Amino acid sequence: MTVEELLSEHRPKIASISTGLRQIMLDLLPEAEERVYPGWHGIGYVDPELGYIGAIFPQADEVRLGFEHGYTLNDPDGLLIRPGTRVAYLSYRTLDSIDRETIEDFMAQLGVLQD
């Protein structure tokens, strides 16, 4: 399954949010491999040295950007949803709600951004 095939299963609004997040992830992680996970219904990012970093999960009414080791993140503004596992995620319901700086901050905390 391709990214396009996965996103074609969603309304245009959800596909657009997913595409916006995807562009940010590809910009921030140029060395990472992008993988479609049909079972998880997600688009994952795997760094050759660091392993699985996180993924974009399109849902019916939102898009989640999950961080594999999100439990370690400092989140003074309470933006992250922490379901009680090591993963934490951001939730987006509109394209305009995506804040690249927030994503960059969390990725920097995880130590995955290249200098």
The H-and-E topology, N to C, reads as HHEEEEEH
Query: What's the architecture in CATH terms?
Result: Alpha-Beta Complex
What is the 3D shape? globular
Number of domains: 1
> CATH class, anyone?
Alpha Beta
Count helical runs: 3
Give me the Rg, rounded: 13 Å
Strand order of the largest sheet: 1-2-3-4-5
Beta strand %: 25-35%
Tell me about the largest β-sheet.
5 strands, antiparallel
Helix content: 25-40%
CATH third-level topology:
Aspartate Aminotransferase, domain 1
Briefly note the structural class of the backbone: alpha+beta
**Low-confidence region ranges:** none
**How many strands appear in the DSSP assignment?**
5
Distance between the termini: 32 Å
The overall pLDDT average reads: 94
Report a brief summary of the structure.
The protein is α+β, with helices and mostly antiparallel strands. The chain is 29% helix and 25% strand.
Walk me through this protein's architecture.
The protein has 115 residues and is of the alpha+beta class. The chain has one domain: Aspartate Aminotransferase, domain 1, CATH 3.90.1150. Helix content is 29%, strand content 25%. It has 3 helices and 5 strands; from the N terminus they run ααβββββα. The chain has a 5-stranded antiparallel sheet with strand order 1-2-3-4-5. Strand 3 and strand 4 form a beta hairpin. The protein starts with a helix and ends in a 5-residue tail after the last helix. 25% of the residues are buried. The model has no long low-confidence stretch (mean pLDDT 94).
